Each structure stands twice: as structure tokens, then as C-alpha cells.
């Protein structure tokens, strides 16, 4: 795992929601709707910029949040 990808977890505290939504859509298109898996795969790419790593971490975090919310709603 590239160092940039690891460090991005420390800085991925806030990315504008519209940027996360836009990137989520783009990753979904590139990876056939598999957003979290696509973001993880792109995060492992060589030469990843620090800013891109932060954005990908934010996309993954948002996907996990949405999954938890849907799971809790289904239980209610």
C-alpha cells in the first residue's frame, strides 16, 4: 500500500460533499457500480497524489456510512 494512501486516512476528515458525490458517480461509472471496491483499487495505484488519496478515502467512508444507515433502517 503506497505511503500516500496510508497518510490520506489521517487527513480525510473533510472533503466538500459535492466533490465526494461527483467522485462517487465517476468511480461508479468506471467500475460498474462497485464504488467502494473501485475507490480501493484506485487507491492502490502507483503515483497517487495526496489530494486524490484523501478524496478516495472520503468516498469509501461515505459508502460505508450509507451502508450502515441502510442496514439500520432495514432493522427498524
Keywords:
76 residues; mainly alpha; 4 helices
Please bin the fraction of helical residues: over 70%
What is the first-to-last residue Cα distance?
38 Å
Helix-and-strand structural type: mainly alpha
The count of strands amounts to: 0
Low-pLDDT sequence parts: none
Global outline: globular
The domain count comes to 1
Biggest beta-sheet profile: none
Radius of gyration: 13 Å
Q: How would you state the average pLDDT, rounded?
A: 87
Strand content: under 5%
- Oligomer description: single chain
H and E order: HHHH
Number of alpha- plus pi-helical segments: 4
Helices and strands in order, then pairings?
Blueprint: H1 3-11, H2 17-30, H3 35-43, H4 50-75
Question: How is this structure best described in words?
Answer:
The protein is mostly helical. The protein has one domain. It has helices at residues 3-11, 17-30, 35-43, 50-75. The mean pLDDT is 87.
